[in-house]
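Lab notebook, bench 4. Still working through the backlog of constructs that have no structural model yet. Next entry is a single chain of 446 residues. Request: give me the structure tokens for it.
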Amino acid sequence: MQAVLQIIKSKSFSSLIGNGLGALLGVITFAYLARVLPKGIFGPYIIFLAIYGIFENLRIGMVMNALVRNLSQCKTIEEEEMVIGSTLFMTIALTLVYAIVMFILYYIFKQFGLFGEYLFFFKWWIGLAFLSLPNNYATWLLNAKLMIKSMSVIRIVSQLAFIAYIYFFILEEKTIYNVVNGYLLSHLLVSLIAIIMGWSGFVNLLKYTRKTVLDIFHFGKYSMGTLLGSNLLRSSDTFIIGFSALGNQGVAKFNVPARLLEVMEMPLRSFAVTALPQFARQYADGNFVALKNEFERKSGMVFYLLLPIAIFCFVFADYLVLLIGGNQYADAALTLRFFASYMAILPLDKFSGVMLDTINKPDLNFYKVLLMLLVNIIGDIIAISIFQNVESVAFVSSATFLSGMIFGYYHLKKHMDISFRSMLNLGWIDYKGYIVRILKIKRSET
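Model written out:
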């Protein structure tokens, strides 16, 4: 029983449960919208989220990794307050710049009659940028402090608020305006909660220093490029499909299995959330051997954790897409099978990026994502030109993530002597150990 209690009390398990509930609510919301909204409205909503996600990843890339890394290395309360104030200052500055750019683009596009169908999105993107700032910063700060339960509360409440809005208001008036309004209001509610609970960091805003802000900028510029590239990597499929002959219906068909993939990646995201602060602390203390072993153990273990999930998704793809999207997306099963075919290698790509940031090589992580983006865009264009379907786009993703895994492994082998064999061996030992302990406890209880 003690082994189970240790697992349950671990930060990774808490993150897994919190992300699991948030992801489950996200899937319920997504599935509900997919069923009640026409594809002509559901497709633009996905595009709205995809484009806003680019800005959100600019903020995350510039601020979050620097916040987690620097806060993990602080020795005093004064240093922590300085880091929080400086990263919050940078977040607000980025949001103001973004708002100005969106304001200018809105009037340029309006003047020339461009993007008429989506022009109103620019106003909503500006509003969402400010409304989401407190709750987004709160999740980064709570992540850095490994306050996983509080971070999970923010994500879960946001999803519940949006679900409630859908149930009470969207069904009465099925318009893209109503959907986006609900999304903004859910962020406003959670931001107010973050401010009231003292998670937003606002009390430390005036404790920023010019030196710390510059240090964060120089580290974050590569991390920002990495996160922006990662978002473009995900969004490029949506954009290329949307602007091809496949149109909004192709976007909707592609994103139903893609959303399911995001849920199946939940264990990976949970372990990555807790890995960066731990890696950063070991690197700051000079425990390079322990850091290497921890990386190999954790990335290998999550690989084995995702492998049966990938196999399950491949085998039962037909039933899963029906569960999420309903009968109108029954033809998306093959797309999900292509996604499942590379799901298991995602930990080896994800953790290599976390490790490159940890050892102060954010530039290499940036180049890794650029390589993957290039492979994905070229592959998507060729695939759609030849096959004219979304399944070929999903197939290209396998080559995309394989290229990232190889690039990351090559450079970690060079700088940290990481061994692919050790990742598999240590990961299997760790994974098997959890399973064996749980099975022994179950047998003793019976």
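Notes after review: Residues 1-32+244-446 form one domain. Residues 43 and 248 are 5 Å apart (CA to CA). Flag for follow-up if needed.
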